[in-house]
Amino acid sequence: MGEGAVRQGMIENDKPYYSLDYYLKTTFGEKVYKIAINAGMTCPNRDGTIGSGGCIFCSAKGSGDFAGDAAAPIAEQIQQGIKGVEKFHSRRFIAYFQAFTNTYAPLAYLKSVYTQAIEQDAVAVLSIATRPDCVGPEVVGLLSQLRQTYEKPVWVELGLQTVHETTARYIRRGYDLPCFERAVRLLREAGIEVIVHLILGLPGESREQIFETVNYVNSIDVQGVKLHLLHVLRGTDLAEEYQNNRFHVLEEEEYVDLVTACIARFRPDLVLHRLTGDGPKDLLLAPMWSTAKRKVLNHIHRELKAKGIRQGCAYREEGNDVRAGNIV
Predict the structure, then answer these.
(1) CA-based nearest residue to 328, from 245, 264, 279, 252
(2) pLDDT at residue 304, as a whole number
(3) Cα(233)–Cα(283) distance, rounded to whole angstroms?
(4) Distances in Å between the alpha carbon of 217 and those of 228, 283, 318?
């Protein structure tokens, strides 16, 4: 959808951006909730294939701290997730394979766990979080087959985080930009929607560097974006860096100002799946203000309104020029 859809969503939802909530309601005609699944996988950045420590910020649960119990069958995890939101009387759900790298397993196993999820009547979307270096033709072929067989959308979430190679090496991302681009191309050729994860506040990155990452995302064929605040979690290598005062953690005002400026720059058809996040409280070292997620979201919405910002107001499609306007 273009800018007109964003404006319509702004009227109906009082949000000046293309929110996931609005996208789901207009696509499925009702509220759709996400159920996080743990399929018991690992990651090539942990098992020694390309590294053993994982990304510098990643928890021992592979960013799946809110996912289900890997020992439970997929269908059982979905039913437990449904029970957790039954008070909202929702009928449709996103089966979200969240923990670790969810295409990093034998193809037969992937087919089994994905099928157990997508075949559930209550599941409206199959969503898979993974790394671009674990997205090859066989995996994409399987996802395409499931999409066609069950006539349900399939999303793949790729953790880009940044376009800057210096930062990528520091966070031990483990793949380069061409690898990411190959994965996106394969997925889009198969009709799979792609959602990109970006982290704001990565050590050493300037405001302008973050905007360069936003500009890059605008230039590629992806359908959604998740913005993450950098969390410092206990037991990670990032925690050691933080405790040795090697980088600055964003304050709430800084983060809100940065997010609103990014929203202004994103092209209008990108669905913004997330504007912030909340790390597990038992692991979170910083920033502690992020635990009040609803408060932070309300702060972002107030700032958007106060500055008169709507998604794409500082975006120019021709040449992807985002310098116009008063957004700084």
Answers:
(1) 264
(2) 97
(3) 5
(4) 15, 30, 15
Q: How, if at all, do strands 92-97 and 224-229 pair? A: unpaired
Amino acid at residue number 244: N
Joined tokens for residue 162: 């940044």
Q: CA-CA distance, 154 to 15, in Å (whole number)?
A: 26
Nearest to 68 by CA among 135, 113, 132, 134: 113
Confidence of residue 88 (pLDDT cuts 50, 70, 90): confident
The pTM of this model reads: 0.90
Q: What three-state secondary structure class fits 269? A: coil
Query: Beta partners for 19?
Result: 272
pLDDT tens-digit readout, 221-271: 999 999 999 999 998 999 999 999 999 999 999 999 999 999 999 999 999
Q: Which of these, 303, 306, 309, lies nearest to 325 by C-alpha position?
A: 309
Q: Cα angle vertex 314, ends 309, 226, to 5°?
A: 75
Distance, in Å, from the CA atom of 28 to the CA atom of 56, rounded to the nearest integer, reads: 37
Q: Where are the beta strands (DSSP E) in the chain?
A: 32-37, 92-97, 123-130, 154-161, 193-200, 224-229, 232-233, 271-274, 284-286
Phi, psi of 265 (to 5 degrees): -90, -20
Is the Cα torsion angle 221, 222, 227, 230 positive or negative in sign? negative
Tokens 């910020």, residue located: 57
Per the CB < 8 A criterion, the answer to whether 109 and 142 are in contact is no
Both tokens assigned to 302: 């107030």
Q: Which two tokens stand for residue 114?
A: 């994905």
Start-end of H helices in 244-292? 252-265
- 8 Å CB contact between 286 and 242: yes
- Neighbour count for residue 48 (Cβ, 10 Å): 8
Q: What is the 3-state secondary structure (H, E, C) of 77-108?
A: HHHHHHHHCHHHCCCEEEEEECCCCCCCCCHH
Distance of alpha carbon 46 from the chain centroid: 20
Q: Where are the alpha helices (DSSP H) in 151-251?
A: 165-170, 177-189, 207-219, 237-243
CA 242 to chain centroid, in Å, comes to 24
